[in-house]
Amino acid sequence: MATAKPQRSPQEVEDIILRKIFLVTLNDSAETDSRTVYLELTAAELLSEGKDLRLSRDLVERVLIDRLSGGFQSAEPPFQYLIGCYRRAYDEGKKMTSMKDKNLRSEMELVVKQAKKLIVSYCRIHLANPELFGSSSPSDSTRKSNVSPLLPYVFGEVASTIDAFGGAGTSEGVKPPPGFVDEFFRDSDFDSLDPVLKQLYEDLRGSVLKVSALGNFQQPLRALMLLVSFPVGAKSLVNHPWWIPKGAYLNGRVIEMTSILGPFFHVSALPDHTIFKSQPDVGQQCFSEASTRRPADLLSSFTTIKTVMNNLYDGLSEVLLALLKNTETRENVLEYLAEVINKNASRAHIQVDPLSCASSGMFVNLSAVMLRLCEPFLDANLTKRDKIDPKYVFYSDRLDLRPLTALHASSEEVVEWINREDPGKNKSTGQNNEGENRLLQSQQASSSGSGQLSNVGKPKYPFICECFFMTARVLNLGLLKAFSDFKHLVQDISRCEDALSTFKALQGQSPSPQLDSEISRLEKEIELYSQEKLCSEAQILRDGELIQRALSFYRLMVVWLVGMVGGFKMPLLSDCPMEFACMPEHFIEDAMELLIFASRIPKALDGVMLDDFMNFIIMFMASPQYIRNPYLRAKMVEVLNCWIPRRSGSSITASLFEGHQLSLEYLVRNLLKLYVDIEFTGSHTQFYDKFSIRHNIAELLEYLWQVPSHRNAWRQIAKEEEKGVYLNFLNFLINDSIFLLDESLNRILELKKLEAEMANTVEWERRPAQERQERTRLFHSQENLIRMDMKLANEDVSMLAFTSEQITVPFLLPEMVERVASMLNYFLLQLVGPQRKSLSLKDPEKYEFRPKELLKQIVRVYVHLARGDAENIFPAAISRDGRSYNEQLFGAAADVLRRIGEDGRVIQEFLDLGAKAKVAATEAMDTEETLGEIPDEFLDPIQYTLMKDPVILPSSKITVDRPVIQRHLLSDSTDPFNRSHLAVDMLIPNTELKARIEEFVRSKKHGEGLPLQAEKGVIHTSGDEMLID
C-alpha cells in the first residue's frame, strides 16, 4: 500500500492515488488492474512539454478529458466510469485515516476532495451533453435515449428497507458511492443541472404512469422527495414545461396524465376509466369474489391499502411542503393547485366526464395532501382563523369561486355588493375610479395580513388564506365527491341485487335463455360494483385519520363562518351580513355531508369536538334569511338524526342534546319551524321531498320528547305559538298523515290485485314474458312504496298521539278542530269500517302496516283531546264530518280494542266520546231544521255553512267565515279567489253582517222556543241525555 512506504514523496503518493481513482497511467508498464487505460498520446504530449509522467492535481482534468474522449475499446461507458471514479475516490479517502503523517494525510485528503469535485462536474457535463464524449457501447447509447443513467443511482440513494408493496419494482436501484448524489445536486449553478433534472423528472413521471396502489410507486416518490429537497431541484421542477402543461386542449385529465406530479397523484386504489386503468388491478387482486374470502384476508387487504396510501400522502405532502417553504417556488405550487382545481370544476357535477376530468383517485389523494398542509392552523383553539379573508372569494384571481352558488345572495346581489363603494374609504383614498377603490378596499381589509398590496397591484393573501380556500375546493371535488359516488354505488348494487332476485324468481317460474343472459350480466356487474365498493372502503372509509383531519378542517370552516355573524349566539340578526350571504354554499353542504358519513362509520367521531357543529346547526337550520336552500338546512337535521344516542351508539352525542344550552333553548323550536318551512322548497319535486325530510325531523322530535327538558320547551312553544308556528306544524302534520295513510291503503288494494293475478298460475303463464316481467317489477315497486309510506304515516300518527297527551289547546282551536276530527274519523273508518277486510295482508309487518297499533294510537288521540276539551266542542266537530263519521264505528273500534288488550279506561272514555258525538249529531240536525233555509249571504262561499265570524278578504273583497279562511291560510298564504298574498292579520271583520247573522239565528231559535244558552254551544244535561248545539 502506498501509504505504508514513507520513503515515497508526496508527489509519488499523489500520483498513485490519482491513478487508482481514475484507472489511467502515463507509463506503459505492467498494470495489475486490467481496467487501467494507458494514455499514450497524453504521455507523449507531456514529454514534449518537458513534464514528468506523473499524475497531479494540475494534470488531472486534462487526463480525465483525454480518458473520456479517447474512445478506448475495453473502457467503461463515460457515466459508469465517472461513477466508478467517485467510488474509488471515496475508498481512497477512507484509507487515509491510517496515514501517520498528518501533513501528508491533510494534503492527500485535499487531492481526493478535488478529484471528487472534478468527477461530479464531469458527470453533470456528460449528462447534460451525452454526445460530448461519445459512447463505446451501443447498449449504453440506447439506454441514454430512454432514461437518464443517473436514475438508477437516485433510486439506489433512496432505497429503503420499506420497499414498495408487491415485491421488486420495475426500476432496480444501484447504490451510488456515499456522498455522490448529495454533491452532484448541491452547490451547482442552475443552468448546468437543469437539463439533467428535467430528464430525471420526466423519467420519474413515466415510472409511475398508470401504477396503482399495489405497484412500485414508493421508490420514484422517494426519489422525487430527494430531488426537491435540493434548491436547484425544486427550481428545476417548477420550471419544467410539464409542471403545468399548456395547450388549447388542456383539461383536468390532461393535467393529471401529463404534468410531472399528476401521475403521482393518480396512484390510487380507487378504480378509474378503462383507458386510464392502473396496474395491478386492486379490486381484482384484493377483493375478487370477496364473499368467499376469509374476513382476516379482507382485513389484511384493507390495512395494506391504507398503509401504502398514507405513504403516498406523506410523500406528496413533503414534496409540496418543500416547494412551498422555498420562496422561489411557492407561487408556482399555488398556481399548479389552482390550475388543477379550476380545470376540474365540473367534477362537482353528478355525471363526470372521465376524459376531461381528473380521476377520483387523484382528487382523494389531493384532499389528503391538502389536509396535511392545513394542519398548522387546525389547532384546538383555531387561533389563526383571522388570517382567512372572506374577500378572497371575490378578489382572488387564482381560484374561480364567483360562479359558485352562494349561501343566500343571488349572483346579481353578489355582483352588486362587490361593486358597491364604501363611502368612508372613498373619501380617504380620494380616488374616483370605482374599480381602484374596490381593489384598495380589499387590500386594506385586515391588519392581520389578510389582504396586502403586492408589487403588481393585486391583493396578496397569506398562505393560510390561500390554503384554506384551496382545501375547501379540493375536498368538494375530491373527498366529498367520493362520498357521494360511494353512496350512489351502494344504491346501484342494491338495485342490481333487487333486479337479480326478480329475474331468478322469473327463471324459476319459466326458464329462458334471455333470462339466463340477464342473470349472468347482473352477477358480473354486481361483482365489479362490489370490488369498487371495497376499494373505496379501503382507501377512504377505513382511514380514520383522513376522516378526522377533514372534520378538523370543517370545524374551522363553521367557526370561521359563524364569526361573520357575530359568533355563537342566538337569536340571529334579522339581516344577514353580505359577506356570509355570498360565501359558497358547498362550504356548509360539504361539512354536513362529511358529518353524516362520519357518523355512520364506527368510532369515526371519537375525540372530535362536535359542540361547534351542534351550535352551527341549531343557529342556521331554521334561518332561511341566512341559508336560502331548504335542502341544505334539511341536511343539518339529517346530521342531528345520525347523532340520536340510540343510533350513534355514543354517549358523547347524548350530551349534545341533553346538556347543551343552545340545544335546550332553540332545538325544538327550530325543528318545528323547519318542519313548516320545508312545505315549499321551490323544487319541482317539493311535494315528495318534504316527506323524507319530515321523516328525519319526526324521528328527532320523537327522541327529544323523551328528554324532560326538551319536552318542557316543546310545551312552552305550543303555548306561546299556538296560533303561530305550532299551529302550522300541526296542520302539516295532519295533512301528511292523511295523505300517507290514504296512499298506503290504496296501494295495498292495488298490491292485492297483483297478488291475485300472479296466484292464478294458469292465466299468469299464458301472458307474454315481457308483460310478466313488467307486472312483477310493478309488484315490487308497490311493495317498496307501501313500506315507505306506512313508515312515515306511523311516525306522524305516533307524534299526534304522544304530543296530544300533554298539548291539546292547538288541536281544539276553531280553525283546527274540524280538521283534526275529520282526520281521526277517516282513519277510524279505514281501520274498523266495512273495507277493513280488504286491507288484510299475509305479512303486514313486512310493509310496516300495523293496524292494531295504529288503531290504538288513533283512539288515544281521540281520548287525549276529549280530556282537554274544556268547552266541549270536540264531539260536535266529530259529528259534523259528513265524509267519514259513523256512530257505529265507535262500538266496532271498542270491540277490536278489547280483543287486542287496550286499557279498559281508555276504551270507556272513547265510547263516552262516541256517545257525545251522537248526541251532538242529533242536536245539529235539530238546529238545521230549526234554521230552515239560510240566506246565501250568510253562507260561507267555500264550505257553504252558516258563518259565525264573517271577515272580508282585503284583495277580492269577498266575505268568508274566519275559521274557514284561517284553516286555508295554514297551508296556503293566498286569497283563494284571486291568489293574491293574504295573511291572518289582513282579515277585516264584517261586523255588520255578523250582527245580521246573529239576529237571524236568534229570531229562528226564539220562534222555535230553543234556549238562548245553546248559542254558545254549551252542553246541557237532562237526566242521562246530553244535548249540544
UniProtKB/TrEMBL annotation:
Coiled coil spans: 512-539
Domain U-box: 933-1007
Pathway: Protein modification; protein ubiquitination
Subcellular location: Cytoplasm; Nucleus
Keyword annotations of the record: Coiled coil, Cytoplasm, Nucleus, Transferase, Ubl conjugation pathway
InterPro entries: Ub_conjug_fac_E4_core, UBE4, Ubox_domain, Znf_RING/FYVE/PHD
Cellular component annotations (GO), alphabetically ordered: cytoplasm; nucleus; ubiquitin ligase complex
Chief subcellular location: cytoplasm
Biological process (GO), any one: ERAD pathway
UniProt xrefs under Pfam families: U-box (PF04564), Ufd2P_core (PF10408)
PANTHER family noted in UniProt: UBIQUITIN CONJUGATION FACTOR E4 B, UBIQUITINATION FACTOR E4
Similarity field: Belongs to the ubiquitin conjugation factor E4 family.
Protein's UniProt name: RING-type E3 ubiquitin transferase
The species this protein was found in: Punica granatum (Pomegranate)
Gene transcribed to yield this protein: LOC116208630
